[in-house]
Amino acid sequence: MKMRWARLLLLKTLAAGVLGCGCQPTSPPPAPALPPGASLIEARNGKIPPLTLEFQQEDPDQPRLKLLREREGLDQVVAGAKDELEVFTRLCDWTNAQWQNSTPNPYPPWDALFILDWIRAGKTGGFCAQYAVVLVQAGLSLGYSARYLAVAPEKGEDSGHLTVEVWSNQYDKWVVIDPFFNARYEREGLPLSGLEVHQALVQGKAKQVRVIRGQGGNGEKNSKASEQEMIGYYFHLAADLRNNHLSRPLPFWDRRQGYLSWQDSFTQGRPRIFGRFTRDPEAFNFPLNQVEAEFEPAGPARLRVRLRTAMVKFQEFEVQPDPGSARRLRLEDPLIGLDPLQGSVLVYEWPLKPGENTLTVRSRNAKGISGPAAFLRISFQP
After folding, report:
1. Which of 8, 15, 319, 374 is 20 to 30 A from 328 (CA-CA)?
2. What is the pTM of this model?
């Protein structure tokens, strides 16, 4: 009888009950298929839910992004950063320092180079949306992922704000980085996503959120909003499901289907503006760059591990069976399939030794950016 792939972590599916209404219950994952004598001790596995694949991302090699990176010296901007969060903070500071809040009239294209050129030439101005475009495209040019996040306070939802969430491989989550206010948000020392700021706000815990100001110079000049007013913007949330406005320059305000709005018991979202919504936090904060691993026995002391990722510009898997023995598996290695609807799929044969065995896997893109780690720990007693 042919063995079925054993999923280490249940994937949340976006069935009819998730988008547009409540989440449906899901079945528990099947028990792992292992060789005799092997037992699973720990599994920290990634996942690729449908919205991860639906999120339309710009190719970091898009010519306008390459020119932005080179012309603006973005490698020098982030040189010496101690970690990924500092990279994002430096890009936010750089973006905020480029101009002071002003009216974008005429309204510039959704192109960071046009925005910078027009503002520097005095042809137009820029407010939160222009700051957001420049920061998103600066991050994309270096190989990182980011999305636009529309937020608005409970009262006065039409006076909203456009900010940015970057996908943090370091923290394995979305993190708000606001180039208009030149700020990010923390709670108990950890950077927060927009949804986490919202949850603190509606649960009466806004005072636990710290506003971390940057050094761009224009944050407090751009707005006199207090820190509590800044946090108050996160009552309504809607995430743009694409950032590819250079290669697909369609109208940005495609609010009916282009955005995914958040809804919970505290808010009914913004249904008259946004056509799609979810109550599922895993759907709203769909992950990026993770590795999903499935396995089956491949012999008495071997596992066949099937690795999958949806990382944009994917180049290789960093595979480390036990400490100190890293190996890189690239597309030219034994590749099973490469399907844009399924991600990059590769099979790795993992020999098990008596005792404890560990396997750490990360995806890595062509810009040298590594995703969050998937981790397996198996005991083998033949």
Report:
1. 8
2. 0.88
